[in-house]
Amino acid sequence: MALMGAQLVVSLLAASIMQRMAPHCSFARWLICNGSLFRFKHPSEGELCALAGKQMPKPNRRDRRQNGENKPLTVPKDIDLHLDKAPVNVMDALVLRFFLEYQWLVDFAVYATGVFIFTECYYSVVDASKEVNIGAIWCVLTVLFGLKTLHTLMSHYFSSEEGGERSVCLAFGFLSLLVAMLVLVVREDYLEFGLEPGFNSLFNNLEVFVKQQGYSDWSVPVTKLTMKLGLAAVCAYIGSLLAFPGLRLAQTHLDAVQMNSDRPIIQILLHMSFMSPIIVLILWVKPIARDFLANAPMGKTSITIVSSSAFDSMRLGIIVALCLLRVVLTRYHLQAYLNLSQKWVEQMKKEAGRIAAIDIQRKVTRVFCYLTVVTLQYLIPILLILFSTLALKTLGDFSWTPGAEQAPGVTPALVFPTAAPAVSGVLEEDEEGVDYMEEDIQATVSRLSESFSALRSVLTPLFFRGFFAFLTWWVAACQVLSSLFGIYFHQYLMHS
What we know:
The protein is mainly alpha-helical. Helix content is 67%, strand content 4%. The protein has one domain (6-57, 88-413, 464-493). It has helices spanning 6-21, 27-33, 45-52, 61-67, 90-93, 99-125, 134-159, 164-184, 195-212, 224-241, 243-259, 264-283, 290-294, 308-328, 330-338, 340-349, 357-369, 371-395, 433-458, 461-493; strands spanning 38-41, 74-76, 84-87, 296-298, 301-303, 354-356. It is globular, with a radius of gyration of 28 Å. Keywords: Glycoprotein, Membrane, Signal, Transmembrane, Transmembrane helix. It is a multi-pass membrane protein.
């Protein structure tokens, strides 16, 4: 414990528990296999023949030899077909597409939340300002793993033979690039991300740090314009990743509201959940959010409703509460998606003509096969906003209680000794091999501490405040763009 620290011990323990408990206890598996979700089973050919009023055709070997294979069974589209329901169980979920990726990511997010809560309690009890915050590392890793999973899903769209999905991703990518370039030129008086102070802090500390390492003639070759262009490219990439999750959210939202038409409280919560990214956007618009609360107009004078530090804490709390609300409403969106099978059957009954029985079975089965894909598309944007906010709180030196955080300054780069000792005190006895092992462990810990100290001297809280505030806001903005377009598409273009 003394060598590694309490945070690292808890982090390694959480990773070990996650690996060993995944086959037995998994929140991701419970989320879709707790018996509250119902899937629709496809009808057999015998059932379709009975509904069509004819007997099941028997296989004819002579026809198979002459024609190569039997003709597909067709039934009228207007048959009185009702799909049977069955609860989603573990055996059904194991064969779903991308189920392993879904289970690993969601479970990792759960354990990352646990590590973050521990580090918050640890920092509130112990003065560990010089230690590396392990909880922040878990939060950043969750964001990166979420983006990687979305990239895997998008690469699946690009590898398909149909080019429609590829065109949608590219279109939203170019639209996101344009919007990001417009947003990045807005002054801090309107969008208070803190990118300008963050970039200034980064450049100043990087130049001081490099000169301390002996490179006196070295200057920072990267300008703010280059940083903003690179950030705009990253925004375009994130926008293309969040295109289909937003479109899917729009569809499941409309279906979930219709499914709960007799439950007004659930409808209100569903609308609040759908509008939550817009609330996140407004929280960073300074004239609407901070200025209104800090300098609320009352006639010719203005009053302060909440202080600046209280507003920062309140903003973090609101975003976390909205993310938790969306997680609670996951089941309603997933059930609305699974109901697409019955919805398609009802639509088929209104059409004329005949349809192959295998097409009915494929259509009903395909909806359930993509359940975990839809779950990932629903949950990953929530995880991105949630863990970006948690990383903003930790790395930006914010606090959950107003007035507790300190204003981050431009921290100068730390001065490192030229020959830092690997061990604080050299062991005098050299009797057993355990002493050498302890020296190696201490040397490794010392080198890691030096690396993280160097990183913290360049990447200050002022920089992290600007970066993660912009990342949180941008993920919400991408979801607003794609989901509102999805509402317009499903409400008007589909019925036109």
